[in-house]
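Thread: Modeling a multi-component assembly for a lab meeting

Hi all, long-time lurker, first post. My supervisor asked me to bring a structural picture of a complex we are working on to next week's group meeting, and I have zero experience with this. I have the sequence lines for every component (376 residues in total). Could someone generate the structure of the whole assembly? Inputs are pasted exactly as I received them:
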Amino acid sequence: MNTTAHLLLAAALLSAPAAFAHGPAFDCYLEDAGGVKCEAGFTDGSSAAGRTIQVRDSRGKVLLEGPVAADGSYRFQAPNGDYAVTFLGGDGHDATLQSFDITQ
Amino acid sequence: MTYQRPLQALAVATALSLSGAAQAHFQVLYVDDTALPRAHPLELAAVFTHPFSGGPTMAMGTPLAFNHISARGEKTDLRSYLRPVQWHSPDNAATAYRASLPRELVRSLGDHTFVLEPEPYLEAEEGLYIQQFTKLVINVGGVPGNWSEPQDLPVEIQPLSKPYANWTGGVFRARVLADGKPVPFAKVEIEYLNHPVEFTANGFAKTAQVKAPQASFNVQSTYADDLGIVTIGLPRAGWWGIAALDIGTKKTYQGKTLSQDAVLWVQATDMQ
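Re: Modeling a multi-component assembly
Sure thing. I ran the full set together rather than chain by chain. Output:
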């Protein structure tokens, strides 16, 4: 699967997260001074702590990568240009947000 | 003139049957949708009315408290967002409140609880005050949270089912609490919001969704069980108000009898 198809699939999954007994729930929003805060979790209430978040540029290159914190959050400074943020929820439970969809 | 009297008597009897005990007072706390895939700005309405008949609506005083409780239990005072409006019911118009909440307040995944503590309302005809502590729970993104936790209110209805995830035709369970303790055999009333909210008109739709075959159907009455648990059905999509009546320990206000009631709103959604 190419990157675009992968992102589309992830977007489709994200649009209906509650349809899974254990599905990913993921959202990001802008904080002050260019900071982005993401929240990751699962629809059965289980924690996403320790799961990986990736920030990629428009060509799919990984710019940032790190673990979800104990409170379910992941923070980063928004890179220049378009980017995508992916929550690697395990077992195919990935969810991706595009930067144009990340607002206050 | 004599032949008009039976008609006048009939008119009076009809008026009595429409305004009598078959209607319940309900503090409405309304939002269009309670289960949001992603957060968006929220439009809320707080209206003290008779939801099945869409009125008459009673004038609200300035609410004593209006709080948001986040998924992590953080409380935010929302009183500064409240603005009084004239709320239009099919029969009358009266002061209610609206609040336009920015997305930032509710953008976190999980449960968001809204609690309204109104100023006690003087029911002049009965010479008593009514104060309905009202809760509304919404969810963002499908991550479950603290929807079932009591909010330390003098009186409240503690959900035992997710208030925002109910199919039409399902059952809903809740526990009636006063000072955090169950209230066995509490008197409970259930009423359907029969006239949809129209935010653009600041009011309820003129046309009712359903027609009751007889006045007893306007409000369903039941009692909690010996553990204070009440179970209700949700036979139609839309909003159902649950009110536990006169369960507070505080029984007087400004020298008059006070009924402290607990209200919870539940949204039912059709399977389709």
